[in-house]
Amino acid sequence: MDPVRSLEIGTVAAGAAVLGSMLGLGGGVFLVPILTLFFAVDQKLAIGASAVAVVTNSVVGSTVHLRGRFTNLRLAMLLQSTTAVGAIVGAVVGVDANPGVINALFGAMLVYAAVSMLRNRGAAPAPPVGGDDPYALGAEYLDPASGKTVSYVPQRVGLGLGVGGLAGTLSGMLGVGGGVIQVPAMNILMKIPVKAAAGTSSFMVGITSVATASVYYADGKIDPTVVVPAMIGIFLGAQLGSRLTRRIRTQNLVAVFVLILLYLGISLLLKAVGITVPGQR
């Protein structure tokens, strides 16, 4: 194991975890393209490493989100019913999928997430807790950044379940935990405030990624030289990122996420057609 390369991977993983934890994306959405584009890690090994790392990120980050009451456990377990099934299906397909197809799919997903976040930078307005709540999914939390109590009732639950299945499938294929689809979907379609969507997604992505990691492990796609430094970095970064979520206005971070997602997404799309961006491998 090259110690310099391990340190570099660990540092990158920590940065990915900080960003991922703050918006409930799990870190894999940044880690997989960085490993493949800048470290020349085999795509399937990068996905396997990311799936394991996302589990670590979820366990660490969820603890802080739960204490802050950002996580809606009832909603998370409901959405997980379709997300977990999708993750298993996606992982089975992804193990043998063509790398070019995965690059194109991953790139398109990152660009979609960037555009969605850019168009919906503010927290979505939510109906009061006392409103129509047939599934008893309403919740509230105190936002330390504003000092206000935020109440909400998830809307379009059936549509959320369908999107959860899609998020799980993409998670299984790409090793990203599904948060990159779940967070925009919960915020835009289900009218859940960004911090609650991030906290709920952070809890969910760990369960989803266990299914993905199991399939990739069974197929021999888990490389300890990549997984170990990534897990250490994720462990450290997730703690910092989940704590920053409490104090920083999420809207102010959207521009940074959009730029990063657009850069990585466009780079993967170019790689899918055989064009390499200068500085990448």
Topology:
Elements: H1 3-23, H2 28-38, H3 43-67, H4 73-95, H5 99-119, E1 139-143, E2 148-152, H6 157-174, H7 179-188, H8 194-218, H9 224-247, H10 254-272
Antiparallel strand pairs: 1-2
Helix pairs in contact: 1-2, 1-3, 1-9, 2-3, 2-10, 3-8, 3-9, 4-6, 4-8, 5-10, 6-7, 6-8, 7-8
Short description:
The chain is mainly alpha-helical and 281 residues long.
User: Given the C-alpha coordinates, what overall shape results?
Assistant: globular
Count of distinct strands: 2
Write the element-wise H/E pattern from the N-terminal end onward: HHHHHEEHHHHH
Whole-number count of domains: 1
Q: Which percent range describes the beta-strand content? A: under 5%
Average pLDDT reading? 81
Q: Largest sheet, if any?
A: 2 strands, antiparallel
Structural class: mainly alpha
Write out the strand line-up for the largest beta sheet, numbering strands in chain order.
Answer: 1-2
Radius of gyration: 17 Å
Roughly what percent helix?
over 70%
Uncertain parts:
123-130
How far the N terminus sits from the C terminus, by CA atoms, comes to: 20 Å
Could you explain how this protein is built, in words?
With about 280 residues, this protein is mostly helical. The chain has one domain. The chain is built from ten helices and two strands, in the order H-H-H-H-H-E-E-H-H-H-H-H. Strand 1 (about 140-145) and strand 2 (about 150) form a beta hairpin. Helix 4 (about 75-95) packs parallel to helix 6, helix 5 (about 100-120) packs antiparallel against helix 10 and helix 6 (about 155-175) packs across helix 8.
